[in-house]
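== Sequence entry ==
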Amino acid sequence: MSGPPRKLPLTALRTFEAAARRLSFKEAADELCVSTTTVSNQIRQLEADWNCKLFIRKTRAVVLTDEGRSLSRVVTRAFDEIRSEVERQKNPARRSVTLAVGPIFGSRWLVPRLARFREQHPRIDLVLHESPRFTDAAMMSTHLAVDWGTGDWSGLDCRKLFAGTYAPVVRGDLMQACGGLSEPADVNRFAVIHKGDKPERAAWMKQAGHPALAPCSETTIIDSNQALQAALDGQGICLGVFPFVQADVDSGRLVKPFDIDMQPERAFHLLSRPSGARTREGSAVRDWLLAEAGVSPG
């Protein structure tokens, strides 16, 4: 007969959760008001007790192993639920809902609408998390999430918010300095800022009838917000995602030189657990997001 279950090392798990979320022992230590050595020792003890590696230590950073990522999802979800329950006990009139979003969706679409959300739902506290790329329900550690994809997420309810469109954008003074942009082939005279493996840019060039464009220089910036900021700073031309850059075009901060819009296969989707697992507050936030996107809650 096996003995009684071992006590869970809750303090060490809380330390692990902070370190996994921030991918930094130092930042976790600052958040928890302990020393970096304490964080490191507690995580090493977890690894020793459970005989598995949770982090890969690098010179200036730490990276989660597969086992660490799996544990992080479970621990983050558990601590969020504990925090929500404590908040309910302290203030039964208010409820918290956690929402994971990517940086450009959060800053360019969601944040400008938050004042309207607070007006409509004053008793719901919306807690924003940085969104990972989801593949299935096991990765869902928040009540709701917005992700970019084709709509296939196993074990989750999925509603399309909007697809968006792609078109090049550039600062007006840079466009004039480089001789203008009267046709897509003129992009060759510009420095191009793009994301990752460039599939959207390649699709736009093909649609524009110039699949073999070769710009004078290229810069790869993985983060969409940073790529857009580089364009706003006049460092080159980038493929803007509409509606996120529409305000910059309307204000004249950026120019959309071509009336050629490429619609990608992927779109922004709202992910949630099946309806039976949603709280009333979670359903209210879900319905509000769908309404803001012009989608019937259904």
